[in-house]
Amino acid sequence: MGRRKLVVGNWKMNGLKAQLGEVEAIGALAARHPAVEVGLCLPATLIAAADGVKGAAFIGAQDCHMKDSGAHTGCLSAAMLAQAGAGWTIVGHSERRQDQGETDTDTAAKALAAKAAGLKVILCVGESLDVRDAGDAESVVSAQLLASLPEGAAADWLAIAYEPIWAIGTGRIPTMEAVETMHRALRAALATTIGGEAEGMRILYGGSMNGDNAAELMGITDVDGGLVGGASLTAAKFAPVIAAAV
Ligand code: PGA
Predict the structure, then answer these.
(1) Residue 213 belongs to some domain of the structure
(2) Which atom of ligand 1 lies nearest, measured to the CA of 230?
(3) Average pLDDT, the chain
(4) Mean pLDDT, residues 215-243
(5) Which atom from ligand 1 is nearest to the alpha carbon of 10?
(6) Beta strands in 64-212 (DSSP E)
(7) Domain that holds residue 158
(8) Is 39 a pocket residue for ligand 1 (Cβ < 6 Å)?
(9) Which terminus of the chain, N or C, has less C-beta within 10 A?
(10) Tens-place pLDDT, residues 81-131
Protein backbone atom coordinates (compact mmCIF):
# COMPACT_ATOMS: atom_id res chain seq x y z
CA MET A 1 0.00 0.00 0.00
CA GLY A 2 1.36 3.39 -0.97
CA ARG A 3 2.12 6.07 1.57
CA ARG A 4 0.32 9.35 0.84
CA LYS A 5 2.84 12.17 0.51
CA LEU A 6 2.83 14.63 3.42
CA VAL A 7 4.13 18.16 2.86
CA VAL A 8 4.20 20.39 5.91
CA GLY A 9 5.33 23.97 6.32
CA ASN A 10 7.08 24.92 9.56
CA TRP A 11 6.77 28.67 10.01
CA LYS A 12 8.92 28.69 13.17
CA MET A 13 8.81 32.15 14.82
CA ASN A 14 7.43 33.84 11.73
CA GLY A 15 3.95 35.10 10.95
CA LEU A 16 1.55 37.78 12.14
CA LYS A 17 -2.10 38.23 11.20
CA ALA A 18 -0.97 40.03 8.06
CA GLN A 19 0.23 36.62 6.79
CA LEU A 20 -3.17 34.91 7.11
CA GLY A 21 -3.65 35.58 3.40
CA GLU A 22 -0.72 33.25 2.73
CA VAL A 23 -2.36 30.57 4.90
CA GLU A 24 -5.54 30.95 2.88
CA ALA A 25 -3.65 30.76 -0.42
CA ILE A 26 -1.79 27.64 0.74
CA GLY A 27 -5.12 26.10 1.80
CA ALA A 28 -6.36 26.70 -1.74
CA LEU A 29 -3.21 25.07 -3.16
CA ALA A 30 -3.89 22.05 -0.96
CA ALA A 31 -7.39 21.79 -2.43
CA ARG A 32 -5.89 21.65 -5.91
CA HIS A 33 -3.59 18.75 -4.92
CA PRO A 34 -5.81 16.27 -3.07
CA ALA A 35 -3.29 13.48 -3.62
CA VAL A 36 -0.95 15.27 -1.21
CA GLU A 37 -1.65 15.90 2.48
CA VAL A 38 -0.64 19.53 3.09
CA GLY A 39 -0.32 21.34 6.39
CA LEU A 40 1.19 24.37 8.11
CA CYS A 41 2.70 24.29 11.58
CA LEU A 42 2.20 27.86 12.72
CA PRO A 43 3.08 30.00 15.71
CA ALA A 44 0.46 29.18 18.36
CA THR A 45 -0.86 32.75 18.20
CA LEU A 46 -2.06 32.20 14.63
CA ILE A 47 -3.64 28.75 15.00
CA ALA A 48 -7.17 29.84 15.86
CA ALA A 49 -7.37 32.50 13.15
CA ALA A 50 -5.74 30.18 10.60
CA ASP A 51 -8.29 27.47 11.38
CA GLY A 52 -10.93 29.70 9.80
CA VAL A 53 -9.09 30.15 6.49
CA LYS A 54 -7.13 26.91 6.14
CA GLY A 55 -9.11 25.42 3.26
CA ALA A 56 -7.90 21.90 2.50
CA ALA A 57 -4.68 22.28 4.51
CA PHE A 58 -4.37 21.21 8.13
CA ILE A 59 -3.06 23.50 10.82
CA GLY A 60 -0.47 22.28 13.28
CA ALA A 61 1.57 23.51 16.21
CA GLN A 62 5.37 23.41 16.51
CA ASP A 63 5.66 22.00 20.03
CA CYS A 64 3.52 21.08 23.03
CA HIS A 65 4.13 20.45 26.72
CA MET A 66 4.26 16.86 27.96
CA LYS A 67 1.91 17.61 30.90
CA ASP A 68 -1.85 18.18 30.68
CA SER A 69 -1.86 21.30 32.87
CA GLY A 70 -0.09 22.91 35.78
CA ALA A 71 2.54 25.41 36.84
CA HIS A 72 4.45 25.76 33.56
CA THR A 73 4.52 29.47 32.79
CA GLY A 74 4.56 30.24 29.10
CA CYS A 75 3.89 26.67 27.96
CA LEU A 76 0.92 25.24 26.05
CA SER A 77 -0.66 21.83 26.48
CA ALA A 78 -1.61 19.64 23.57
CA ALA A 79 -5.30 20.00 24.50
CA MET A 80 -5.00 23.81 24.33
CA LEU A 81 -3.48 23.57 20.86
CA ALA A 82 -6.15 21.10 19.75
CA GLN A 83 -8.88 23.38 21.06
CA ALA A 84 -7.36 26.33 19.16
CA GLY A 85 -7.66 24.33 15.94
CA ALA A 86 -4.44 22.36 15.59
CA GLY A 87 -4.74 18.86 14.18
CA TRP A 88 -1.04 18.09 14.35
CA THR A 89 2.08 19.14 16.19
CA ILE A 90 5.80 18.90 15.59
CA VAL A 91 7.86 17.49 18.49
CA GLY A 92 11.62 17.23 18.92
CA HIS A 93 12.64 19.80 16.31
CA SER A 94 16.41 20.34 16.47
CA GLU A 95 15.89 24.02 17.29
CA ARG A 96 13.99 22.99 20.43
CA ARG A 97 16.50 20.27 21.26
CA GLN A 98 19.27 22.92 20.96
CA ASP A 99 17.58 26.08 22.26
CA GLN A 100 15.44 24.50 24.99
CA GLY A 101 17.60 21.50 25.82
CA GLU A 102 14.84 19.03 25.00
CA THR A 103 15.89 15.38 25.18
CA ASP A 104 14.79 12.21 23.41
CA THR A 105 12.79 11.32 26.53
CA ASP A 106 11.05 14.72 26.49
CA THR A 107 10.28 14.26 22.81
CA ALA A 108 8.68 10.86 23.35
CA ALA A 109 6.63 12.24 26.27
CA LYS A 110 5.45 15.19 24.19
CA ALA A 111 4.43 12.88 21.36
CA LEU A 112 2.36 10.79 23.78
CA ALA A 113 0.73 13.90 25.28
CA ALA A 114 -0.13 15.09 21.79
CA LYS A 115 -1.70 11.76 20.88
CA ALA A 116 -3.74 11.76 24.08
CA ALA A 117 -5.17 15.15 23.05
CA GLY A 118 -6.05 13.85 19.59
CA LEU A 119 -3.19 15.48 17.72
CA LYS A 120 -1.14 13.77 15.06
CA VAL A 121 2.59 14.14 15.43
CA ILE A 122 5.67 14.87 13.34
CA LEU A 123 8.73 13.68 15.29
CA CYS A 124 12.02 15.23 14.17
CA VAL A 125 15.47 13.69 14.21
CA GLY A 126 18.75 14.60 12.54
CA GLU A 127 22.51 14.72 12.87
CA SER A 128 25.03 17.53 13.38
CA LEU A 129 27.72 18.21 10.81
CA ASP A 130 30.36 16.65 13.10
CA VAL A 131 28.40 13.40 13.19
CA ARG A 132 27.90 13.46 9.42
CA ASP A 133 31.62 14.12 8.82
CA ALA A 134 32.58 11.31 11.19
CA GLY A 135 30.55 8.89 9.07
CA ASP A 136 28.19 8.00 11.92
CA ALA A 137 25.02 9.67 10.68
CA GLU A 138 22.85 6.58 10.10
CA SER A 139 23.66 4.90 13.41
CA VAL A 140 23.37 8.10 15.46
CA VAL A 141 20.08 9.21 13.91
CA SER A 142 18.60 5.68 14.09
CA ALA A 143 19.45 5.57 17.81
CA GLN A 144 17.98 9.04 18.31
CA LEU A 145 14.79 7.95 16.56
CA LEU A 146 14.34 4.82 18.66
CA ALA A 147 15.05 6.76 21.88
CA SER A 148 12.50 9.44 20.90
CA LEU A 149 9.83 7.04 19.69
CA PRO A 150 6.67 7.10 21.82
CA GLU A 151 4.89 4.03 23.10
CA GLY A 152 2.31 2.78 20.63
CA ALA A 153 3.90 4.52 17.66
CA ALA A 154 1.71 3.88 14.63
CA ALA A 155 1.46 5.18 11.09
CA ASP A 156 -2.05 6.61 11.53
CA TRP A 157 -0.91 9.26 14.01
CA LEU A 158 2.86 9.58 13.76
CA ALA A 159 5.23 10.69 11.01
CA ILE A 160 9.00 11.07 11.22
CA ALA A 161 10.98 14.00 9.82
CA TYR A 162 14.67 13.47 9.08
CA GLU A 163 16.30 16.88 9.23
CA PRO A 164 20.09 17.10 9.13
CA ILE A 165 20.82 20.04 11.44
CA TRP A 166 23.46 21.42 9.10
CA ALA A 167 20.95 21.53 6.23
CA ILE A 168 18.32 23.57 8.09
CA GLY A 169 18.11 27.11 6.79
CA THR A 170 21.51 26.86 5.12
CA GLY A 171 20.68 26.10 1.51
CA ARG A 172 22.86 22.98 1.76
CA ILE A 173 21.37 19.50 1.44
CA PRO A 174 22.87 16.02 1.60
CA THR A 175 23.43 14.10 -1.63
CA MET A 176 20.41 12.18 -2.86
CA GLU A 177 22.32 8.96 -2.10
CA ALA A 178 22.83 10.06 1.50
CA VAL A 179 19.15 10.88 1.90
CA GLU A 180 18.15 7.54 0.41
CA THR A 181 20.55 5.64 2.69
CA MET A 182 19.34 7.49 5.78
CA HIS A 183 15.62 7.02 5.06
CA ARG A 184 16.15 3.32 4.38
CA ALA A 185 18.09 3.02 7.63
CA LEU A 186 15.38 4.83 9.61
CA ARG A 187 12.62 2.59 8.23
CA ALA A 188 14.69 -0.47 9.12
CA ALA A 189 15.25 0.93 12.62
CA LEU A 190 11.52 1.53 13.00
CA ALA A 191 10.80 -2.04 11.92
CA THR A 192 12.93 -3.39 14.76
CA THR A 193 10.52 -1.77 17.21
CA ILE A 194 7.13 -1.52 15.52
CA GLY A 195 7.44 -4.32 12.97
CA GLY A 196 5.25 -4.12 9.89
CA GLU A 197 3.81 -0.78 11.02
CA ALA A 198 7.07 0.79 9.82
CA GLU A 199 6.07 0.16 6.21
CA GLY A 200 3.16 2.59 6.43
CA MET A 201 4.88 5.27 8.49
CA ARG A 202 5.77 8.40 6.58
CA ILE A 203 9.37 9.59 6.81
CA LEU A 204 9.74 13.19 5.62
CA TYR A 205 12.91 14.96 4.61
CA GLY A 206 13.53 18.47 5.97
CA GLY A 207 16.34 20.98 5.61
CA SER A 208 16.49 23.55 2.80
CA MET A 209 13.82 21.79 0.75
CA ASN A 210 12.51 24.14 -1.92
CA GLY A 211 10.92 24.25 -5.35
CA ASP A 212 14.24 23.44 -7.02
CA ASN A 213 15.11 20.26 -5.11
CA ALA A 214 11.73 18.96 -3.87
CA ALA A 215 10.91 16.74 -6.85
CA GLU A 216 14.23 14.93 -6.69
CA LEU A 217 14.11 14.53 -2.90
CA MET A 218 10.52 13.30 -2.86
CA GLY A 219 11.24 10.97 -5.74
CA ILE A 220 13.45 8.88 -3.45
CA THR A 221 11.74 5.59 -2.50
CA ASP A 222 11.59 6.07 1.27
CA VAL A 223 11.04 9.85 1.25
CA ASP A 224 7.33 10.37 1.90
CA GLY A 225 7.19 14.15 1.87
CA GLY A 226 8.84 17.19 3.34
CA LEU A 227 9.03 19.43 6.38
CA VAL A 228 9.68 22.83 4.87
CA GLY A 229 10.78 25.99 6.67
CA GLY A 230 11.74 29.03 4.62
CA ALA A 231 10.09 27.82 1.41
CA SER A 232 6.70 27.48 3.13
CA LEU A 233 6.33 31.10 4.23
CA THR A 234 4.52 32.20 1.08
CA ALA A 235 2.13 30.38 -1.24
CA ALA A 236 4.33 31.38 -4.18
CA LYS A 237 7.37 29.59 -2.75
CA PHE A 238 5.42 26.63 -1.33
CA ALA A 239 3.41 25.93 -4.49
CA PRO A 240 6.23 24.20 -6.43
CA VAL A 241 7.11 22.07 -3.38
CA ILE A 242 3.51 20.85 -3.08
CA ALA A 243 3.32 20.25 -6.84
CA ALA A 244 6.58 18.26 -6.66
CA ALA A 245 4.95 15.79 -4.27
CA VAL A 246 2.29 14.77 -6.78
P1 PGA B 1 14.29 25.05 6.25
O2 PGA B 1 13.73 24.52 7.67
O3 PGA B 1 13.42 24.47 5.19
O4 PGA B 1 14.18 26.54 6.34
O5 PGA B 1 15.71 24.57 6.14
C6 PGA B 1 13.23 23.22 7.81
C7 PGA B 1 12.88 22.92 9.24
O8 PGA B 1 13.65 23.30 10.15
O9 PGA B 1 11.84 22.29 9.53
Answers:
(1) yes
(2) 4
(3) 98
(4) 98
(5) 9
(6) 88-91, 120-125, 158-162, 203-206
(7) 6-13+21-245
(8) no
(9) N
(10) 999 999 999 999 999 999 999 999 999 999 999 999 999 999 999 999 999
